[in-house]
Design a protein that fits this description.
Elements: H1 5-19, E1 32-36, E2 42-47, H2 56-64, E3 72-75, H3 89-95, E4 100-103, H4 115-122, E5 126-129, H5 133-139, H6 141-148, E6 153-161, H7 179-191, E7 194-198, H8 199-205, E8 222-226, H9 237-240, E9 247-252, H10 260-264, E10 268-272, H11 278-288, E11 293-296, H12 300-308, E12 314-320, E13 347-355, E14 358-365
Parallel strand pairs: 3-4, 4-5, 6-11, 6-12, 7-8, 7-11, 8-9, 9-10
Antiparallel strand pairs: 1-2, 1-3, 12-14, 13-14
């Protein structure tokens, strides 16, 4: 059955309601719900917020009351049918007398996937799926990766010149982006659970790596430094503020005996094997800590590590309208690189937008 214009309109609203939970739901999904009465009126809306312990469907049904009976529920993700922190949303929809449920996609969580739709259909409720499916998948891309690949979603963001350089040289901090682009980066930080840089970026730029979007978030942004040789020291902002903002430093296990000074400042130092499984070990540890998404902000070496390992799920390049040139200025992405064009990282779903004088290009690597 093809969706109607109203189906699309109300689903757009449900997705917008879900997005209002950004920063407030991880490691759970973004979910919004719209209840439309049998007379075609919007009678209830809800947005899921983790700490409220009440799902979007339940909030919308409470608002609708008896007007929900005989109506349609538009939900941005398959309603869950299992007992978790809350009772099943499917029971709430069934008991409220909803006769039709419209949703974009199944929930990727194996505890939920397909069972919610099945229970609704078995109760005589018409279920329509696939409405704005691409938009539904995009809004919960982090949650989907979390379940499908059993690791955090990795978003690599790099600020660079038009010729792909990230600074004048490897030991000089170079601010390339304008005000609008810097505001956009704060939006990215707000959307993620953690932010990650390499030890050289931490030393040269001495960044704070905080969420300065001004928006409310449920959990503090976790700051991560990849530092295999444990060069991070107590004079850096990241270390000085570690008791205020959670800070993890990943280093090779044989360096842990030198971690005492960082730990005194409140930094948590985590040892990992220095072999080829380095990044998967880091991501596995972040998954264990229920970190659903990581914004990787560089620099060259770290970007190359993630690209070579094919551990990038989303890539954003913010290009300033300048040319640096020369042989010394570091490229945005280092590492081993592709040996052939066929083995290069190919991108899809590319989008571009102007940010003041800068240009943002965002896309998704095509699976090998």
């Amino acid at each position: 059955m093809n969706p109607t214009e109203n189906d699309i309109r109300y689903m757009e609203r449900a997705l917008a309601l879900g997005a209002e939970g950004t920063g407030l739901v991880s490691p759970n999904p973004l979910v919004g719900c719209v209840i439309v009465s049998k007379d075609g009126e919007v009678v209830g809306e809800g947005t899921y917020i983790y700490d409220d312990v009440c799902h979007a469907e339940v909030l919308a049904l409470k608002q609708a009351g008896e007007l929900a009976r005989g109506g349609t529920a538009y939900v941005s993700l398959e309603p869950h049918a299992h007992h978790g922190k809350t009772p099943p949303c499917t029971d709430a929809l069934i008991n409220a007398g909803i006769v039709r449920v419209v949703a974009p996609t199944e929930d990727p969580n194996p505890l939920v996937s397909g069972t919610g739709f099945r229970q609704l259909r078995e109760s005589g409720i018409e279920v329509v799926t696939g409405v704005l499916a691409a938009a539904g998948e995009r809004i919960n891309e982090k949650f989907r990766m979390w379940h499908q690949k059993k690791r955090p979603f990795v978003h690599l963001k790099l600020a660079m010149s038009l010729d792909g350089r990230i600074s004048l040289n490897s030991s000089v901090s170079t601010a390339l982006s304008g005000i609008a682009a810097r505001e956009r980066v704060q939006q990215f930080r707000h959307e993620h659970d953690a932010i990650l840089v390499g030890s050289n970026t931490a030393a040269v730029d001495d960044p704070a790596l905080t969420d300065r979007s001004g928006k409310t978030r449920r959990r503090k942004l976790v700051r991560i430094v990849l530092d295999r040789r444990l060069r991070t020291h107590g004079e850096l902002q990241l270390v000085k503020t570690a008791r205020e903002f959670p800070t993890l430093v990943f280093t090779e296990t044989n360096n842990l005996s030198r971690a005492g000074d960082l730990e005194k400042h409140g930094v948590e130092v985590v040892g990992v094997d220095g072999d080829s499984g380095y990044l998967p070990q880091v991501l596995a540890e972040l998954k264990r800590r229920e970190i659903q998404s990581v914004l990787v902000e560089g620099g060259t070496t770290v970007a190359g590590l993630f690209c070579d390992a094919r551990l990038v799920d989303k890539l954003t390049l913010i290009a300033a309208p300048i040319i640096i040139g020369g042989n010394i200025a570091p490229a945005a992405i280092g590492g081993s690189g592709a040996k052939t064009l066929d083995s290069a990282m190919h991108m899809h779903d590319m989008q571009a937008q102007q940010l003041g004088d800068d240009l943002e290009i965002t896309g998704y690597p095509t699976a090998a």
